[in-house]
UniProtKB/TrEMBL annotation:
Organism: Serinibacter arcticus
Active site as annotated: 52, 127, 151
Keywords (A to Z) from UniProt: ATP-binding, Ligase, Nucleotide-binding, Protein biosynthesis, Transferase
Family classification: Belongs to the amidase family. GatA subfamily.
Presence of keyword ATP-binding: yes
Keyword Nucleotide-binding among record annotations: yes
EC supergroup of this enzyme: ligase
UniProt name for this protein: Glutamyl-tRNA(Gln) amidotransferase subunit A
GO terms, molecular function: ATP binding; glutaminyl-tRNA synthase (glutamine-hydrolyzing) activity; transferase activity
Any single biological process term in GO: translation
Subunit structure: Heterotrimer of A, B and C subunits.
Swiss-Prot/TrEMBL catalytic activity: L-glutamyl-tRNA(Gln) + L-glutamine + ATP + H2O = L-glutaminyl-tRNA(Gln) + L-glutamate + ADP + phosphate + H(+)
Superkingdom of origin organism: Bacteria
E.C. number: 6.3.5.7
Length: 454
């Protein structure tokens, strides 16, 4: 049914970069055969899933939304893909994304944008717009995203779906094409909080192949979602982050947020305002740390190891000139912008002034979170400042694009988990999101409070 739906609507939505119906049906058939043979199966066995194209999949093309990886077929599976296969979730295909996960609209994909199913003239968020749009268009019941600065949560907000960025290290990064290794985190995307929790339990847990993987089992999330589903939050202390509200937020986004805060109180939660002053500098710090790490991570795309190789049209064919021709043609404008920015921030004369200062801000943000979590169990804010904007509206204005991430970025800089849950519609009928943040390793609280907000 989902393959049929993809065939019907994906020409207009363009959530997918790659679908192999025969492969999906073979995987589903294997689950059916195992079920018929009486083999004990995982409770999600047979539920199909879409996977963001930044996650490597053995035998299935993986591009990270970049032309430089066109035609590359990975020889191995990411750990999270191994886990999906072991649990029997057939893969529907790979979803569209901003090139190397840089962006907030999926317009930076090397393969054309994804359209928001709520209004095809609008963006589905980014970088994981494909994974979110696939859910909103009912092309997939579950999907996988990655969130380095909001790429799971912001697309969820603008497509009326649920997206979770787990605690840094709680889902293995082995087999993710790295953007910024200290910020990257894969997580579940779904249409309900309970679905996301069930998927998180499949993909989470310790992985010896990822040196930053936490030695912690991924359990208790679905139970927390069921508990939250009762609507009772007695005893839960909720902090409203002063710096993530007010100016710069669309009126309906602020109004819906205020309504939900009152709902939390009505559900028995104790709501207080907290201040996290360093959050004001989070965006600036992120847009130095991320390009710095990305410029280093992307150095491996050199025209020799993976995908595209372009030889210079004239002059000698040296390694350096092949590299320059390949990168010049294979990378899009946003990727080049960030490589240049990151290389500059890391250069000897400017390292302390830019990268060093950004790292200090990162520590201050972590301290703001720690201080807040002494007073409250979770923090709440709008997920994104606005609902889905028009395709093309911010494409030529990188700063306007970066501002979408103002509320999602602090969590990545501190490694703490966050969820975006649908929070009503604006006057134009477009979805709004609300974000819940919890302390590191307390992802269960996202599911409890998230489910209560549903
Ligand atoms: N919009 C952010 C950026 O462009 C988010 C990236 C992400 O989470 N992958 O960096």
């Amino acid at each position: 049914a989902h393959l049929d739906r993809i065939a019907e609507v994906d020409g207009a939505v363009h959530a997918f970069l790659h679908v192999d119906a025969a492969d999906t049906l073979a995987q589903a058939g294997a689950v059916d055969a195992a079920r018929a043979a009486g083999t004990p199966l995982h409770h999600l066995a047979g539920v199909p899933i879409a996977v963001k194209d930044v996650v490597v999949t053995r035998g299935t093309p993986t591009t990270a939304g970049s032309r430089i990886l066109e035609g590359w077929i990975p020889p191995y599976d990411a750990t999270l893909v191994e886990k999906l296969r072991a649990a029997g979730l057939p893969m529907l295909g790979k979803t569209n994304m901003d090139e190397f996960a840089m962006g907030s609209s999926t317009e930076h994909s090397g393969y054309g944008p994804t359209h928001n199913p709520w209004d095809l003239t609008r963006i589905p968020g980014g970088s994981g717009g494909g994974s979110a749009a696939a859910l909103a268009a009912f092309e997939a019941p579950l999907s996988i995203g990655t969130d380095t600065g909001g790429s799971i949560r912001q697309p969820a907000a603008v497509t009326g779906t649920v997206g979770v960025k787990p605690t840094y290290g709680s889902v293995s990064r082995y087999g993710l094409i790295a953007l910024a290794s200290s910020l990257d985190q894969a997580g579940p995307c779904a249409r309900t909080v309970l679905d996301a929790a069930l998927l998180h339990e499949v993909i989470g847990g310790h992985d010896p192949r990822d040196s930053t993987s936490l030695p912690q089992a991924a359990t208790g999330y679905a139970d927390a979602a069921r508990l939250g589903g009762t609507g009772d939050l007695t005893g839960v202390r909720v902090g409203v982050v002063r710096e993530l509200a007010g100016e710069g937020y669309q009126r309906e986004v602020s109004e819906a947020f205020a309504r939900s805060v009152r709902d939390l109180e009505a559900a028995g939660a104790e709501v207080v305002e907290v201040s996290c002053p360093s959050f004001e500098a989070a965006l600036a710090a992120y847009y130095l740390i991320l390009p710095a790490e990305a410029s280093s991570n992307l150095a491996k795309f050199d025209g020799m190891r993976f995908g595209l190789r372009v030889e210079p049209t004239e002059g000698p064919v040296t390694a350096e000139r092949v590299m320059a021709a390949t990168r010049g043609q294979g990378f899009g404008a946003e990727v080049k912008r960030r490589i240049i920015l990151g290389t500059y921030a890391l250069s000897a004369g400017y390292y302390d002034a830019y990268y060093g200062s950004a790292q200090k801000v990162r520590t201050l943000i972590q301290r703001d979170f720690a201080a807040a979590y002494e007073k409250v169990d979770v923090l709440v804010s709008p997920t994104a400042p606005t609902t889905a904007f028009k395709l093309g509206e911010k494409l030529d204005d990188p700063l306007a694009m970066y501002l979408n991430d103002v509320a999602t970025i602090p969590a990545n800089l501190a490694g703490v988990p966050g969820i975006s849950v649908p929070n009503g519609l604006d006057d134009a009928g477009l979805p709004i999101g609300i974000q819940v943040l919890a302390p590191a390793r307390a992802d269960d609280r996202l599911y409890r409070v998230g489910a209560a907000l549903e």
